[in-house]
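Re: the pair you flagged

First of the two:
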Amino acid sequence: MAVSMFTPAQRESGEKISSVKLESVLSTSLYFKKRNKFKMEKTLKTNEINLYAFRNGLMKMALFISLLSSLLFIIIYIYMELFFVVGLVLLFGGLFSVTYVFLFLKKEFLAKIWLLSVFILDITFICFLFSVDSGFQFYFFIASIIAPVVLDMQKRKNRIIAYGYLGISLLFFLFFHNRQYQGIVHLPLSWLRIFENITLLTVALSLFIIFTSFIRVLAGSEQRFYKASITDPLTGVLNRGGFFAKLQDEWIRSQRYNLEFSLLLFDLDFFKSLNDRYGHQAGDKSLCRFADLVSSCLRESDVFGRIGGEEFMILMVNTGTASALVKADSIRKNISSEVFYWESQPVSFTVSVGVSSFLKSDKTLDEVYSRADKALYKAKTEGRNRVASH
């Protein structure tokens, strides 16, 4: 039988303290998870908005084409039977109004399915009215392309529906186009040729709009994915790969035009002790706070990135050693005077900075970086919270 070393009152007190600490840790962990998730998804959110606008734009275009084609045969047929035309207007007007009812009820998926169905129904009805020489059957190409784009193809159900619309559209096109259907309404051949030309131009223009819009969305997505790949998810500044890519470009430019640049290598002092004392969440907040403070005092031409752990680096273009030292010391003073609170406890930290500049005798970029690293080591061995150059 196990014997407890604590009294019931002590155990109850310990459980309360443990629960409070656990709740605090969980809440802070959740805060930083949300912060990191927001930073990671921030660059992708615009892409989702663009795709949403693109799909809704296609829905409006499909609605416009359907109404335009409906009005077309109504205007032509109006001189024959007025009551028939009024009935068609009420029928298609009612069908299309249901789309806006679904949108008003925030049933976007049902609105898309309904609109695509009415669109195909409208084209089919027009093809039955007029001869194949009118060219209205080519509208089925628009319906076959709009369905996969409007629906979210990442879901299996939507893929099946989109492929179903694609198959139906192509089958209807082949049905009307191959059997040389003559239609119910007989118009002069010259009129039919005009309608055919208008239809082909409308289809070509619609396909052009669809593909160019989709290409723009893909181009924007590629840029945003690239930006996400070179951004540090915690601090929001450049990560190691993104920073050194910029540094490599500046190295080539400096060699070609004999320009100077400087590197400022930062390392947070006693960062491991800060993590051990306050927790890793406090350490993450320190990194974010440091990145925000440094970013707020940089020039537009400066490049700032996190190159690993608690190490950060600034690339200052067109800047010599003297100006770089002044800037580094100014940042160091601002950091040393900064205090933030973590769980009601004041937290402060300092940084050591190593500065190096590009020399004409440098053969590789590693020589500049190595001098900055040696300067940082010198600043740390001399007592930390200071700036050194090499």
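Second of the two:
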Amino acid sequence: MTDARNSIRAIMQSMLAWVALAPCGPSFAVELPHAPDESAPPAGITASLEELEAEFVELNRDLDVLEHKLLYPPSAEVVVFVSVAAVEALDLESLDLSINGKRVAQHVYNTGELVALERGGVQRLFVGNIPPGTNRLNAEFNAVDATQKAYRKRVEIEFQKSFEPVRIQLEITRATAASEADIAAIVVH
């Protein structure tokens, strides 16, 4: 409603100014007082809005950190990483990860990710909570070599989860082009 009023007011002011400046009889000009621009907020309000926005961004960042701590408390956290070591002419296609019989992660690799892994990069495949006690991890990868020979390898391990975070490193290896590709899991507490 106020936008319509402001538009009408602006049109009327421009019409009055045009009529006042138009020659009709003796030449004279009447200067009309200009109403303040109601569409732009005063400078003090703009500064206050910018301060509120900065506070909102900071509060949102703090809430994200708190949410992560609540969802993934260190006492229940498990993190699974993937690396590729001594791989010769092997293209990793996908990797499936299950913990305690439940699929928790699945990833299909693109060329950029393969290059990063071959250069020594490490991928964080999964971050989540699991109960303390004995847990079972299953990981399976699919890959092809330069001769288009397909590989599907699997590793299964049991590990103990205490009240400390657990880190598990999945390492895909292949020593030479003639050797079989393999996957190993290393539990790091």
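The radius of gyration is 33 Å.

-B.
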